[in-house]
């Protein structure tokens, strides 16, 4: 296990690796696990390390304590209103850092699975929406409550609008109400609901299945999924077809198809 350690406090983020799965745990429960400067730096550092780590096949993102994440550290941000520019440069910097972390999740070769207990609000909800999969305890709740304090959740909107239908995303953004786990699953924000307290186990079960597959194939599939989603229909089919041709010629596809025909377990290569 390693951790990103602040000089004045406990580690803000923990990492534990086992069986090809890296589990990252937000670790500021007393502050509701905010996406503070320190937390964003720790996430960025760990995602960069994991991207280059061929032993990691899947990532689980969890949180310590009763709150998954309350989003940005508003106290930390508000303190910069005393700056000569009223915080403009700082706000642009911290929001840019957060956006880059969300994009790291999408760009990561390994799938990322959120394990959500408690509440995930604002940028905390954004990071759940940015993950490839999400498992929630039945007591979990989600919201983008910026409208309650005069701050529309515009950056969380980017991830939400790519997961939910337009009307469901707008409902969350305009009303700012808490959405129960089962409703979040119906909306498309969450894949599975499990008994309270079992989200981490559920996410690790997903991760274990993914870790048993060809890492090269999973990497290709995840990248292509996000690439084609931004294209028009014809361009998406053209791109996906070209990728599939290369995939068919890859060593793991040859091995996997051969193993299927010969009725034996496949032996995957390294990613």
From TrEMBL:
Domain of life from the UniProt record: Bacteria
GO function terms (MF aspect): enoyl-CoA hydratase activity
The keyword Hydrolase belongs to this UniProt entry's keyword annotation: no
Pfam families, per database record: ECH_1
Keyword presence, Lipid metabolism: yes
Keywords: Fatty acid metabolism, Lipid metabolism, Lyase, Transit peptide
InterPro entries per UniProt: ClpP/crotonase-like_dom_sf, Enoyl-CoA_hydra/iso, Enoyl-CoA_hydra_C, Mitochondrial_ECH-domain
Function: May play a role in fatty acid biosynthesis and insulin sensitivity.
Family to which the UniProt record says this protein belongs: Belongs to the enoyl-CoA hydratase/isomerase family.
Protein name listed in UniProt: Enoyl-CoA hydratase domain-containing protein 3, mitochondrial
Species of the source: Bosea rubneri
């Amino acid at each position: 296990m390693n951790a990103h350690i602040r000089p004045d406090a406990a580690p803000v983020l923990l990492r534990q690796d086992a069986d090809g799965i890296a589990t990252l745990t937000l670790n500021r429960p007393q502050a509701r696990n905010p996406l503070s400067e320190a937390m964003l730096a720790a996430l960025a550092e760990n995602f960069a390390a994991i991207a280059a780590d061929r032993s990691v096949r899947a990532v689980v993102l969890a949180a310590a304590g009763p709150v998954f994440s309350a989003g940005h550290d508003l106290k930390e941000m508000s303190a910069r209103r005393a700056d000569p520019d009223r915080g403009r440069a700082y706000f642009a910097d911290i929001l840019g850092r957060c956006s880059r972390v969300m994009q790291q999740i999408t760009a990561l070769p390994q799938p990322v699975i959120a394990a959500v207990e408690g509440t995930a609000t604002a940028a905390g909800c954004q990071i759940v929406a940015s993950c490839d999969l999400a498992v929630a305890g039945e007591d979990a709740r989600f919201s983008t409550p910026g409208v309650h304090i005069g701050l529309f959740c515009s950056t969380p909107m980017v991830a939400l609008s790519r997961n939910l239908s337009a009307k469901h995303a707008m409902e969350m953004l305009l009303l700012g109400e808490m959405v129960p786990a089962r409703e979040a699953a119906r909306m498309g924000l969450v894949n599975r609901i499990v008994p309270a307290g079992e989200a981490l186990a559920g996410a690790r079960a997903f991760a274990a299945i993914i870790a048993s597959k060809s890492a090269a194939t999973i990497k290709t599939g995840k990248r292509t999924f996000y690439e084609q989603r931004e294209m028009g229909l014809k361009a998406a089919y053209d791109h996906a077809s070209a990728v599939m041709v290369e995939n068919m010629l890859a060593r793991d596809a040859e091995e996997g198809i051969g193993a299927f025909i010969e009725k034996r377990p496949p032996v995957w290569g390294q990613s």
